[in-house]
Amino acid sequence: MIKVGIVGGTGYTGVELIRLLSRHPQAQVTMLTSRSEAGRRVDDMFPSLRGVTDLTFSDLDEKKLAACDVVFFATPHGVAMKHARFLTENGTKVIDLAADFRLQSLQDFEAWYKLEHACPDILKDAVYGLPEVNRDAIAKAKVIGNPGCYPTTAILGLKPLIDAQNSQQQALIEPWIIIDAKSGVSGAGRQAKMNLLFSETSDSFSAYGVAGHRHAPEITQGIDQILGQSKRFQPHDIRFVPHLVPMIRGMFTTIHVRLTAAGQALDLQSLYETSYQNEYFVDVMPKGMYPDTRSVRGSNYLRIAVQTLENSPMATILVVQDNLVKGAAGQAVQNMNVMFGLAEQTGLALVAVVP
Ligand SMILES: NC(=O)C1=CN([C@@H]2O[C@H](COP(=O)(O)OP(=O)(O)OC[C@H]3O[C@@H](n4cnc5c(N)ncnc54)[C@H](OP(=O)(O)O)[C@@H]3O)[C@@H](O)[C@H]2O)C=CC1
Ligand SMILES: CC(=O)N[C@@H](CCC(=O)OP(=O)(O)O)C(=O)O
């Protein structure tokens, strides 16, 4: 059994980790921290977990956490980096659901997150935890930066096209990409904020981060990583605009690209199907079928559809995921499975909840 610690057990991704790990045959949550609820039974706070766990929230004690094989940080940005050194020196792996270990560029991290990094040396060796892109490196990693929810949809939505540019050694899309994304309100976490009130978010639809969002550099980094050395195909201009929609869970990302002549000659449907045929958690929808967020709710699947138009160079890629599962806790468990040499779907083969 893999002994698991969770820091930040009272938040949305923390409780989602407990839900997923409670049915994992080879992992057991042994410690769950909260500053505000230390001493309280977990199932007292979350009745959904009655009969699932008899754990009590505890204070964050590094020494006790170091007795775990892996610790998930389901905390705000800037928490995991303060504990990563002690834990890794004691042989405990770290999976951070926040952004402390996502951006390889220290400068980008400090500029976008307004935090000084506590361990740039550990950041250098940390691995971006997107298994469909980075599986081999994740298997050897001690510290994982679990991707942001929006970047997961954007990077996996574009990967087949970018890979094809690399293998064909020619540009298939023009050097700009538009990423128009919508998230359910749980994406903002379980915090009391005016703009997250029911009467502010329900029956309304708004854009935010229009002048710039911290996931833009993460998306660019992800695309660059897939591009590898073939920098001449780098899509320099990425326009990412997130929106908040009146639903609790779910994320819908619509990506627009303009195909070059070589790109227009491709059969994108078959490119996407072939590209993801061996990926357990990525479902390419049949031609003419489009995904909706309920088709992934509560599951670790990401569903994609790709649409080209007659007499037009434009192509549209539609991507959905549950922001709390493939966009956060599910992806984190998928990473744990890779790090511990387990089948990737262990404990994660969940069917979406409909309606
Ligand atoms: N929600 C989502 O869809 C996604 C979230 N993420 C990221 O995952 C992380 C967690 O998100 P989410 O669960 O939504 O957040 P929440 O705000 O719902 O929960 C945060 C948790 O962290 C704990 N916490 C807060 N401050 C500290 C601190 N300084 N030290 C230790 N613990 C602390 C809180 O508990 P307490 O105050 O009791 O200690 C709480 O349990 C964030 O970094 C978020 O950006 C990533 C992808 C998607
Ligand atoms: C709806 C909403 O507010 N979503 C969050 C993104 C959640 C997430 O993945 O982001 P981080 O882990 O990078 O914070 C936001 O835009 O700030």
From TrEMBL:
Catalytic residue positions: 149
Top-level enzyme category: oxidoreductase
Xref: Gene3D superfamilies: Dihydrodipicolinate Reductase, domain 2 (3.30.360.10), NAD(P)-binding Rossmann-like Domain (3.40.50.720)
InterPro entries cross-referenced by the UniProt entry: AGPR, AGPR_AS, AGPR_dimerisation_dom, AGPR_type-1, NAD(P)-bd_dom_sf, Semialdehyde_DH_NAD-bd
Keywords tagged on the record: Amino-acid biosynthesis, Arginine biosynthesis, Cytoplasm, NADP, Oxidoreductase
Pathway linked to the protein: Amino-acid biosynthesis; L-arginine biosynthesis; N(2)-acetyl-L-ornithine from L-glutamate: step 3/4
Keyword Amino-acid biosynthesis attributed: yes
Ranges where the Semialdehyde dehydrogenase NAD-binding domain occurs: 3-141
SUPFAM superfamilies: Glyceraldehyde-3-phosphate dehydrogenase-like, C-terminal domain (SSF55347), NAD(P)-binding Rossmann-fold domains (SSF51735)
Listed CDD domains: AGPR_1_C, AGPR_1_N
Keyword NADP: yes
Reaction equations catalysed: N-acetyl-L-glutamate 5-semialdehyde + phosphate + NADP(+) = N-acetyl-L-glutamyl 5-phosphate + NADPH + H(+)
EC number: 1.2.1.38
Compartment list: Cytoplasm
Role summary: Catalyzes the NADPH-dependent reduction of N-acetyl-5-glutamyl phosphate to yield N-acetyl-L-glutamate 5-semialdehyde.
PANTHER family: N-ACETYL-GAMMA-GLUTAMYL-PHOSPHATE REDUCTASE, CHLOROPLASTIC-RELATED, N-ACETYL-GAMMA-GLUTAMYL-PHOSPHATE REDUCTASE, CHLOROPLASTIC-RELATED-RELATED
Record family assignment: Belongs to the NAGSA dehydrogenase family. Type 1 subfamily.
Protein name: N-acetyl-gamma-glutamyl-phosphate reductase
